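Sample entry follows:

_____
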Amino acid sequence: MLISEAYLSLNENLHKSDNYGSKGDKWSSKVKELIESLQPSSILDYGCGKGALARALQVKIAEYDPAIEGKQSLPSPASLVICTDVLEHIEPELLNDVLDHLEELTQIALFAVICTRPAKKVLADGRNAHLIVEDWSFWEKQLSKRFKIKDVKIHGKELEVLLFSRRSA
């Protein structure tokens, strides 16, 4: 399971607000560099929110977000998977399932950005919107089980991570 019904409902409501899930273009210049260097045959924005990354890049990008109508169908594998500002929102008890899903979907590389501080947003049930607030040592342990870690940059309380599939050459 990737998301519980109760948490899905909370996220659907948050996404109906004007700005939640609308900042996917924040990393568009980095993603553009990755596209130029990796020349992926397919790209997936995993946890795409309102689709700002695809609009900013103006390239064909498959989009998956279980809380956005029309984008909730499970995606197909892609050469390059983008997952920015998503993993900290995953229900802790489902993190392994989501990371396993990302591993299955990633044919060449996964670019992830993970926030390591509490969010400004609070869920309707009172929890902070960032359900997982952990530092790099936690994420390194989780990610290295499934991927080859190529590059890590720490920007204050944000991790920028480039990972490669263990199946890719």
